[in-house]
């Protein structure tokens, strides 16, 4: 059979495509895929056979009641937790057994729920930490200045991070995670405890990074107004597994989602 007969593609029958390649390889738009992902803590199952996918450049929000397994799922993706069963595929590779720093090198970054900036270091020193891994000299100084400006912290360069407001610390840490130039950035409740104005600033920041840098996001958030503002797609977790997926309008209109999460009638 000619190349024309196969639509211009020639396959090698002796090459076996891996599960990771099928799930997230070059022939797909899928950047991340989990396959039957299970995490047990003793007798408690935090995630139960989760199949969860994120496309390149997608902005996905992850919602669900407390204890649904949302933070556990993100930690399994970034590698700070190891699964009891199942696999994590990323950009054509099986990353299930890779350490967190190896996943960062492949393009996965995460900002945890509680800001983990280094309080005794200045804003500039915090911003420099991820950037110094791949840039030095004038390039490093330029990138640090840009990261600080993007976080809305110009003028705070020499201020100790511990003295920043909670919202400013969140902005600084998002900047530190984005400075690693990830393809996928995971955010765990980035607007918890923030004012409406601070929430809007974070939303604008995420949308800009998604639009201008092409970063895909998975964002855990309870604030459905914030979710409605930023999300392309919403995934609802319940009892450790995917319960529903769709647009925020579809999710809010679903009576079963309202029952378990949004405060609808039982």
From TrEMBL:
The keyword Nucleotide-binding applies. Keywords: ATP-binding, Nucleotide-binding, Transport. One of its GO terms (molecular function) is ATP binding. SUPFAM superfamilies: P-loop containing nucleoside triphosphate hydrolases. Pfam families: ABC_tran. Residues 32-264 form the ABC transporter domain. Gene3D superfamilies: P-loop containing nucleotide triphosphate hydrolases. Residues 1-29 are annotated as: Disordered. The keyword ATP-binding applies. InterPro entries: AAA+_ATPase, ABC_AA/LPS_Transport, ABC_transporter-like_ATP-bd, P-loop_NTPase. This is ABC transporter ATP-binding protein.
């Amino acid at each position: 059979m000619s190349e024309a007969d196969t639509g211009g593609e020639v396959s090698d029958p002796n090459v076996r495509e891996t599960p990771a390649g099928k799930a997230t390889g070059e022939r797909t738009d899928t950047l991340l895929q989990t396959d039957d992902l299970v995490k047990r803590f003793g007798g408690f199952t935090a995630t139960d056979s989760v199949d969860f996918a994120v496309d390149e450049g997608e902005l996905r929000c992850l919602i669900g009641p407390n204890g649904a397994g949302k933070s556990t799922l993100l930690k399994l993706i970034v590698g700070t937790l190891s699964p009891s069963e199942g696999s994590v595929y990323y950009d054509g590779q099986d990353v299930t057994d890779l350490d967190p720093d190896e996943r960062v090198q492949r393009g996965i970054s995460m900002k945890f729920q509680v800001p983990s900036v280094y309080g005794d270091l200045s804003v500039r020193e915090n911003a420099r930490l991820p950037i110094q891994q791949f840039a030095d000299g004038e390039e490093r100084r330029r990138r640090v200045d840009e990261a600080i400006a993007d976080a809305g912290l110009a003028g705070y360069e020499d201020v100790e991070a511990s003295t920043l407001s909670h919202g400013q610390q969140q902005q600084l840490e998002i900047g530190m995670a984005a400075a690693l130039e990830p393809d996928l950035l995971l955010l765990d409740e980035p607007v918890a405890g923030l004012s409406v104005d601070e929430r809007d600033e974070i939303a604008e920041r995420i949308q800009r990074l998604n639009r201008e840098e092409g970063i895909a996001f998975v964002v855990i958030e309870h604030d459905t107004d914030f979710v409605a503002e930023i999300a392309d797609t919403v995934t609802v977790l319940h009892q450790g597994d995917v319960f529903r997926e769709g647009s925020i309008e579809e999710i809010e209109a679903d009576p079963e989602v309202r029952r378990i999460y949004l405060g609808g009638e039982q």
